[in-house]
Amino acid sequence: GVLHLDILTRSWTGEDFLRYVDLLLDRMNPFPQKNSVLVMDNGSSHHVEGLRELVEAR
C-alpha cells in the first residue's frame, strides 16, 4: 500500500526526493518485515548524494 504521499506543483529535485524518502523511512519496517522494500526507478532525482547512506542507516 501507499505509506507516504507528497505532491508538488513543480518538478521534483534530488533534495525533494531526499526529504520524501526521509519521511517515508519513518513509516517503513526493517527487512524482511511487511513494508520493508523501497523500489525506485532510474529517475535523476533518485541519484541524489546521501540517499544511499540515509536508507542504509535506517
From TrEMBL:
Name under which the protein is recorded: Tc1-like transposase DDE domain-containing protein
Species this protein is from: Gloeophyllum trabeum (strain ATCC 11539 / FP-39264 / Madison 617) (Brown rot fungus)
